[in-house]
Design brief:
Number of helices: 11
Structural class: mainly alpha
Distance between the termini: 27 Å
Strand content: under 5%
Low-confidence stretches: 99-103, 137-146
Number of strands: 2
Helix content: over 70%
Largest sheet: 2 strands, antiparallel
C-alpha cells in the first residue's frame, strides 16, 4: 500500500511537469522509479511509458480545446517517432546482461539508462538555462511562426524522439519542446501542446509493444496516473499564463534535478 501512495505522489509531480513543460511525465517518473523502487530498467521504462498515456492525453485534450496544437508539425514528428519506437522497444528488452560477480546487480540496461539520461539532462539543462537568460521581456519575444519550415527537420527530430519512450521511458518532450521553441520559433505554450500530442500516440504504441513483450505493469501505472492526470489537466490550463523566460529557466533546473536523481539511483544499485 505504501508503494502505491509513493507512486501517487510521483504522479502528481509527473502531471505538473507534463502540463507545464510539455514533457510526458517520464522525465521525472523514470529517475524517481529508478532510484526508489529497485525495478530493472526495462520495467521502469514500461511503467513510465504506460503512465505517459494518461498525462499526455489529459494535457493534449486541454490544449486541443484551446487550439494550441500545431497539427502539421505534430504529424511530421509523430509518424517517424512511431517507426523508431518499434526498434527502441526491441533494444531495451535485450539489455539484461550483467557485469560479472562483483557488479552482478547491474545490467547493460542500467549503464545505458544512466549514461544516456545523464548526458541528455546535462546538455539540455545547460542549453535551456542559457536560452532563458537570453530571453527578454515578459512574453519572451519569440514569434509564433516557425523559423524552421523544412519538414525534413521535423521528421528527423521525430525519428530521434521515438527512441525516448521506448528505450528511456521519457516522452521526448525534453527534446521536442526546446527544438520547437529555439529553432522553430514556437511560443512555449504551443511547443508544449505539440509535444504532448506526439507523446500520447507514441506512448500508446510503445505500451502495446511492451504488453506483447511481457513487460506490462498496469497497477503501478494506474497509481501514478491517479495523481498525474488531474495534475496535468490543471497545469495545462494555467500554462498560457507562465512567463516564457521563467519556463525556459525552470525547464533547465528540472533537467539538473532529474540528473541528480538518476545518478543517485545508479549509485544506490552499484553499492
Amino acid at each position: 500500500m505504501t508503494q502505491y501512495i509513493i507512486l501517487f505522489f510521483i504522479g502528481i509531480l509527473s502531471g505538473f511537469f507534463s502540463g507545464t513543460f510539455g514533457v510526458g511525465g517520464g522525465f521525472i517518473v523514470v529517475p524517481l522509479l529508478y532510484s526508489l523502487t529497485g525495478l530493472p530498467p526495462e520495467a521502469v521504462v514500461s511503467i513510465s511509458a504506460l503512465q505517459m498515456i494518461g498525462t499526455s492525453f489529459a494535457g493534449t485534450v486541454t490544449h486541443i480545446a484551446k487550439k494550441n496544437v500545431v497539427f502539421r508539425e505534430a504529424l511530421f514528428i509523430t509518424l517517424p517517432a512511431l517507426a523508431s519506437s518499434y526498434f527502441g522497444v526491441k533494444g531495451i528488452n535485450s539489455m539484461g546482461g550483467g557485469f560479472g560477480e562483483r557488479f552482478s546487480q547491474l545490467t547493460v540496461g542500467d549503464i545505458f539508462l544512466t549514461v544516456t539520461l545523464s548526458v541528455l539532462f546535462f546538455s539540455i539543462g545547460i542549453y535551456s538555462l542559457i536560452q532563458g537568460k537570453k530571453t527578454s521581456g515578459s512574453d519572451g519575444g519569440e514569434p509564433d511562426v516557425p523559423v524552421v519550415k523544412n519538414p525534413v527537420c521535423f521528421i528527423a527530430i521525430g525519428l530521434i524522439v521515438g527512441f525516448c519512450p521506448s528505450m528511456l521511458g521519457v516522452g521526448g518532450g525534453f527534446l521536442i519542446v526546446p527544438f520547437l521553441m529555439y529553432f522553430a520559433g514556437f511560443m512555449p505554450v504551443k511547443a508544449t501542446a505539440t509535444s504532448l500530442f506526439q507523446i500520447f500516440f507514441v506512448s500508446v504504441f510503445v505500451s502495446f509493444m511492451n504488453f506483447r513483450a511481457g513487460e506490462f505493469y498496469p497497477f503501478s501505472a494506474i497509481a501514478i496516473l491517479s495523481g498525474s492526470m488531474p495534475a496535468a489537466s490543471f497545469f495545462a490550463h494555467r500554462s498560457a499564463r507562465y512567463n516564457p523566460r521563467k519556463v525556459k529557466i525552470g525547464f533547465g533546473i528540472l533537467c539538473f534535478l532529474a540528473l541528480l536523481v538518476t545518478i543517485a539511483g545508479f549509485t544506490r544499485r552499484l553499492f
